[in-house]
């Protein structure tokens, strides 16, 4: 691997503090950290996932869950050999529910919340036959109502209500998951919301619409949906959508459009937002993780990482964070062990253990480079930094050093760490220690320059003294 041939001196050259950078100016290529701004406790908002957890209990060792403070799982028995309710009623549904129940138990073992996917229990997991039935076909809802009754009964019988969210339907604006009209979906929404709210009250959170598209002012699908839930009194407890299609869109811009424009237009209440599938496959690496972490944490949005596996691999590897022997060859064993962390897991583990308080941050105005930062009770800061699918040189301006009980001018020592990546199944150890260096600062500000050594590489900076 190329990064292993870097010497410490070389690494410090390719990603270094530049003491000559002026401390009092910010341009389009400067990200900021404002230590005097308290943004609350870190919430590990990017430590959830879509599937990625084996049905077999305890297959992945505990340390890989606890190490990243795993806190959200979204599943529903997809891609099971049993086709779901649409394939023949309860007998074809039961294996999928049992799969979901196993995943629920794993999530709860670690204190994570669980999002149950109704569409996967039904069998609309994108692999169903082209002539498969959808709820309400021909105006007949009786089969779907029987299905919902069964789901409600099974949830109660299994004692699943603690820590449970229910996603009313996945990607209803995407043909493979909902091959019917929006009108038919809206009727499904109203019926499902009423049945589940009646069964569980507010003890179970209802999530939606979990669209493949994101809310914009010219998205007619979203306009009709918001109008419907407003007049139908079926507002979800958690608003949700996905960020998978347009690399120019992000959690920050889509949530701002939703909260500042669309939601007020329809007189809808403020509720939490969950982006329950995010990141292109090529963004699932340390630098991409930092970019998303900063945006989710800054806007207090829960994020669940997307999953690009199929069949057995869908239920494995923590949705792309782990590897194991034969992970990507014809000897792959869905129930095999021998797990190890990849580079992105190492980044998430570091992020999950950034303690203390979040502080104010801004990314570069070109939208390409981001930072997330905390400070702890011992007046030390930690910063992670990374770019989104690009190379370049950026600056990080750290302001408010006096809030750490430092003088407004002087010098500080900073330790630098590098997070490497060797592919999705490549084993990577803890971050590489690039050493410490002393930097002079003035006007309560220190500015340094970062040039990532690869498109996947992320960095951490820690105040030593």
UniProtKB/TrEMBL annotation:
InterPro entries in the record: GH
Signal sequence interval, chain numbering: 1-18
Tagged with keyword Nucleotidyltransferase: no
This protein's record includes keyword ATP-binding: no
GO molecular function, one term: hydrolase activity
Organism: Fusarium pseudocircinatum
Protein name stated in the entry: Glycoside hydrolase family 39
Alphabetical UniProt keywords: Hydrolase, Signal
Domain of life: Eukaryota
């Amino acid at each position: 691997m190329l990064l292993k041939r870097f010497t410490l001196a070389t690494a410090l050259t390719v990603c270094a503090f530049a003491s000559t950078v002026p401390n009092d100016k910010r341009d389009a290529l400067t990200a900021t950290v404002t230590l005097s701004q308290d943004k609350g406790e870190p919430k590990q908002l990017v430590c959830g996932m879509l599937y990625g957890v084996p049905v077999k209990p305890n297959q992945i060792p505990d340390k890989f869950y606890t190490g990243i403070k795993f806190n959200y799982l979204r599943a529903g028995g997809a891609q099971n050999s049993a086709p779901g309710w649409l394939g023949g009623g309860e007998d074809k549904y039961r294996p999928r529910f049992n799969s979901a129940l196993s995943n629920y138990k794993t999530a709860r073992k670690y204190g994570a919340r669980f999002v149950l996917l109704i569409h996967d229990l039904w069998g609309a997991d994108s692999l169903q036959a082209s002539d498969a039935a959808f709820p309400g076909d021909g105006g007949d809802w009786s089969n779907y109502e029987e299905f919902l009754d069964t789901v409600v009964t099974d949830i109660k019988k299994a004692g699943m209500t603690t820590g449970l969210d229910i996603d009313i339907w996945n990607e209803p604006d995407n043909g493979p998951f909902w091959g019917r009209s929006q009108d038919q979906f809206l009727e499904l929404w109203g019926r499902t919301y009423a049945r589940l709210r009646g069964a569980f009250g507010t003890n179970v959170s209802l999530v939606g619409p979990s669209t493949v598209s994101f809310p914009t002012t010219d998205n007619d699908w979203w306009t009709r949906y918001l109008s419907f839930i407003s007049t139908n009194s079926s507002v979800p407890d958690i608003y949700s959508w996905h960020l998978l299609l347009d690399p120019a869109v992000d959690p920050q811009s889509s949530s701002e459009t939703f909260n500042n424009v669309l939601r007020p237009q329809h007189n809808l209440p403020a509720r939490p937002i969950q982006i329950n599938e995010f990141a292109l496959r090529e963004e699932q690496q340390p630098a991409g993780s930092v970019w998303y972490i900063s945006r989710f944490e800054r806007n207090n949005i829960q994020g669940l990482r997307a999953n690009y596996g199929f069949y057995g691999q869908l239920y494995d590897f923590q949705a792309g964070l782990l590897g194991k022997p034969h992970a990507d060859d014809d000897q792959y064993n869905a129930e095999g062990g021998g797990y190890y962390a990849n580079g992105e897991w190492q980044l998430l583990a570091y992020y999950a253990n950034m303690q203390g308080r979040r502080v104010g941050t801004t990314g570069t105005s070109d939208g390409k480079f981001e930072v997330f930062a905390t400070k702890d009770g011992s007046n030390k800061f930690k910063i992670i930094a990374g770019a989104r699918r690009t190379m370049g040189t950026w600056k990080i301006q750290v302001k408010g050093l006096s809030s750490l009980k430092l003088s407004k001018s002087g010098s500080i020592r900073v330790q630098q760490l590098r997070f490497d990546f060797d592919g999705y199944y490549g084993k990577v150890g803890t971050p590489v220690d690039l050493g410490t260096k002393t930097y002079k600062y003035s006007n309560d500000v220190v500015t340094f320059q970062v040039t990532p050594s690869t498109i996947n590489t992320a960095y951490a900076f820690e105040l030593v003294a």
